[in-house]
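[Discussion] Sanity-checking designs against the backbone

I'm trying to build intuition for which residues belong where. Below is a structure token string of 438 positions. I'd appreciate it if someone posts a full sequence so I can compare it with mine line by line.
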């Protein structure tokens, strides 16, 4: 009975450990990685807050179109009033009620400001759109960063498998060497050479395994995943389109969708609105106003009367700043310079985008050609290894030939995994510079 209880407890304990390990390992496809990057990135959370700030700023600017309404209540002490007599009025001090209080409601509504308020609203809306584009830009940047981590992790795991496979082959070869060494048909140096190769591969395997843990931890930190999460890439990477799409098509797409180009176009529009806003300062402002007050005492008679007096006032107010005629010259010059700089910046960004698209496209095509070359090299290295292995087993090939063939095969396998991931990374970079990394 005790043995059965212990067995049940151990089974439950081992099952719990297996479940915990399964929870610590997270297999991700590229699309799932991008979704996690959007939801877990601290940078994107900050960008989202900036969008909300810009939208709030636009709402605040729109509030300028609403009427202003003020309510005022006052209470205080009044001293006796002193007068200097004119005509029949005697000079001296006259008694008056010492307690005063008033109630006032006043409202005003801006009718015309030369377009200053409207330009302010439009500038705030442009800032909100710019914040949204910056969010998209940051989102693509995070995705490209995570894609780099992801492909690096995929490459390292593939390389680990290559080392493990070659270590197994080297161990089998070493067994054959030991058999022949015992039979006296091989030299001790042949065994040492094989053991050196095997130890070097084991060391490289340790280094690759350590790098896998480092990259996985960096990804978990960036994605705000629980500490200790092991990320496992999907063994089947997404297929990358071939280079049939011409460079001109990529460039045209970038002009339409690249966030930096759109941001600088909005910056240029913002500079134009600021110039119009400064120009509006040369125009008068017109507004409607109304006020209704109740005040006590009535001080417009001598002696003052302790009564409430009601006063209603409605009218049209026209304001014109004479100081603006000379103060706004510097502001207009600054706004004009800002517009000129925005135009130049927009042209510079367009130029840099064309260069970036050309470079990314060229590197992508090169990566495809390199992948084809590495695939061919691996076929040749594998065939060479097979032939020399057969020759070695038939004792017509030297151990040095076997070692060289093994090294060539190992090197081409590693280069192929690098070329496979590099082609996909170059494609992601091309999508990034054209604004299509979604």
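Best answer:
Here's mine. Compare freely.
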């Amino acid at each position: 009975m005790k043995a059965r209880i212990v067995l049940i407890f151990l089974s439950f304990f081992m099952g719990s450990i297996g479940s915990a390990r399964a929870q610590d390992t997270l297999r991700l496809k590229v699309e799932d990685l991008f979704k996690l990057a959007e939801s877990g990135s601290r940078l994107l959370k900050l960008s989202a807050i900036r969008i909300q700030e810009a939208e709030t700023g636009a709402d605040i600017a729109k509030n300028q179109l609403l009427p202003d309404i003020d309510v005022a209540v006052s209470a205080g002490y009044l001293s006796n009033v002193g007068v200097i007599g004119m005509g029949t009025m005697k000079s001296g001090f006259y008694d008056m009620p010492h307690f005063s209080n008033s109630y006032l409601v006043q409202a005003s509504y801006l009718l015309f400001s030369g377009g200053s308020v409207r330009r302010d609203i439009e500038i705030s809306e442009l800032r909100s759109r710019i914040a949204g584009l910056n969010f998209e830009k940051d989102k693509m940047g995070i995705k490209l960063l995570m894609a780099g981590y992801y492909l690096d992790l995929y490459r390292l795991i593939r390389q680990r498998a290559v080392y493990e496979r070659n270590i197994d082959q080297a161990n089998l070869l070493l067994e054959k060497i030991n058999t022949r060494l015992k039979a006296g048909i091989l030299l001790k140096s042949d065994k040492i050479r094989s053991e050196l190769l095997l130890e070097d591969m084991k060391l490289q395997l340790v280094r690759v395994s350590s790098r896998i843990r480092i990259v996985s931890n960096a990804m978990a930190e960036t994605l705000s995943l629980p500490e200790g999460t092991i990320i496992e890439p999907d063994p089947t990477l997404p297929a990358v389109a071939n280079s049939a799409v011409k460079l001109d098509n990529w460039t045209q797409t970038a002009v339409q969708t690249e966030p930096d180009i759109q941001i600088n176009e909005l910056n240029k529009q913002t500079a134009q609105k600021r110039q119009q806003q400064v120009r509006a300062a040369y125009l008068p402002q017109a507004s409607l106003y109304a006020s209704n007050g109740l005040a006590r005492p009535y001080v417009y008679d001598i002696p003052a009367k302790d009564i409430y007096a009601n006063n209603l006032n409605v009218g049209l107010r026209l304001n014109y700043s004479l100081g603006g005629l000379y103060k706004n010259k510097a502001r207009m010059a600054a706004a004009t310079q800002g517009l000129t700089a925005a135009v130049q910046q927009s042209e510079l960004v367009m130029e840099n985008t064309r260069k970036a698209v050309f470079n990314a496209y060229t590197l992508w095509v090169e990566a495809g050609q390199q992948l084809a070359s590495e695939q061919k090299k691996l076929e040749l290295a594998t065939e060479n290894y097979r032939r020399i292995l057969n020759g070695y087993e038939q004792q017509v090939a030297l151990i040095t030939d076997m070692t060289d063939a093994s090294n060539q095969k190992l090197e081409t396998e590693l280069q192929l995994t690098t070329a496979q991931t590099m082609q996909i990374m170059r494609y992601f970079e091309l999508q990034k510079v054209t604004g299509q990394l979604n």
